[in-house]
Amino acid sequence: MHKYVIMGVQGSGKGTQATRLVEAFDLVHIGVGEILRWNVQFHTKVGAQVRRTMEAGLLVPDDLVESIVRTRLAEHDWNYGFIIDGFPRNDRQAEFFLESYDIDAVIALDMPDAEVQRRVLSRRLCSKCGLDYNLIADRPAVEATCDACGGTLVPRPDDNPAALAQRVRDYHEKTTPILERFRRKELVVTVDAMQSIDDVHADIRRQLGVDASG
Ligand code: AMP
User: 10, 59, 109: which to mutate for ligand 1, most atoms within 8 A of CB?
Assistant: First the structure.
């Protein structure tokens, strides 16, 4: 059983690396932002509550995200473990999380802010199936078209310079301090996110002591 949290500034590759770990260890991926975007896309009640907040790059209420995480983990479909990305993001969420769940490690992806804009503003999402692309590293075969379902690729509404600046500010003001809290519990492994996707993955596994060589 592997129970991980993955943290890092916007564009540091949390989703990409979480997916790689899911494939390697058969984990369940709990992407809180992804769950919220699904709710917006399908016009649920939660979606209506959070759409504007998300578009402005602001954090949605703690009660709501905590209940999303609690409900998702209560499904207990994670026989081999889970990896949570996008949570916890502030002190209160960290408190809730540490009181409610045991985790094995927090993976911190380290990346300078100077790289954030370049990566995030080139990100595209399929408007139909939600698959993500990057115009630098992971271009679709046909421009602006999803390879998997043919849907149109669009930027995320919160991947614009103003909302992004707000999100990065929140990351440093609210999320970085909780990384310190996890560090004191000796839960954190820090990985240089400027390496290639494969190298970041290998580095994570090495530091977690779960690399291919054992
Ligand atoms: P992400 O996909 O992780 O960049 O999250 C997208 C957006 O979802 C954030 O900018 C917030 O508006 C919201 N969100 C995701 N996770 C959280 C969280 N743990 N607490 C509050 N808001 C969140």
Answer: 59
